[in-house]
Amino acid sequence: MSAEETNKSEEQKNIDKELKNSETSELTTAKSHGEILKQQIIEGQETYDKNSVSILLSSLTAGLEIGFSYLLISTLFYFLHGKVEEDTILKLISFVYPVGFIMVILGQSILFTEQTSLLTLPVLNKKRSLGSLLRLWGLVISGNLIGGYLIAFLLVWIGPQLEIFDLKTVEKIALHVTNYDKTIIFVSAILAGWLMGLLSWLIAASKSTLSRIVLIFMITAVLSFVGLHHSIVGNVEVFAGLISSPAITIGGYLIFICLALFGNALGGVVFVALLKYRAFVYDVKG
Length: 286
Prior knowledge:
Blueprint (H helix, E strand, L loop, with lengths): L2 H18 L12 H16 L3 H14 L1 H14 L5 H7 L5 H9 L5 H13 L5 H33 L4 H12 L3 H24 L3 H18 L4 H14 L5 H36 L1
Helix pairs in contact: 1-13, 2-7, 2-10, 3-8, 4-6, 6-11, 7-8, 7-10, 7-13, 8-12, 9-12, 10-11, 10-13, 12-13
């Protein structure tokens, strides 16, 4: 073994030792960086250990449940249309946008953007391989997207039947999400992925259900208020437009979903998982 390999091995042993010594306090004091990181790595490894079918079903459930955000977005947009200026409606949507996220995250379903940084940490800590990460991402993304397709079909049919929104509303929402330059969507998705990765970190730092609800509402309301692109909610929004309006093309949908997924992943991995992990490593190295 070369000197460089020996040094890396010793460094990894020191990191593992420091993580092992990070015990979560039952007191009211805030968790340390090491405690949060340790919890995130453990939770990430637990997901790796789950059965593939279980992961796919949990991811599909998340894709379905996130549709309740879309249901409320469409209903509120339709209800306020003509009564309030459209730009004001788009800001007010931030009050209902978090509902689906609260259902998914507190219900422990697997949402790609919330799990991106979480699943990356065991790889950075050399407990899992890059190949296993990409395989897991593939399962989660597939489940989230399929769930989104199913709920989009249901909501596009039931909305007009219940007269809570119409297909014109569906089209307007889809166009609002996609009517940007490709670079804008990509950078917006990076910021959204950054915030969602940070949300996962903050939830691990919190100690009560109420504080977690407040954190989920705060972060996802910011996403909605400033119009950042979230791949899984956006999947429902744009796919619903695709199946109900000629204004959204299959090419436009595919470009959007690829940019949003890649941007969200990059934001979660680089700005949360990598930076948080490296900050801890440099602290251990002293």
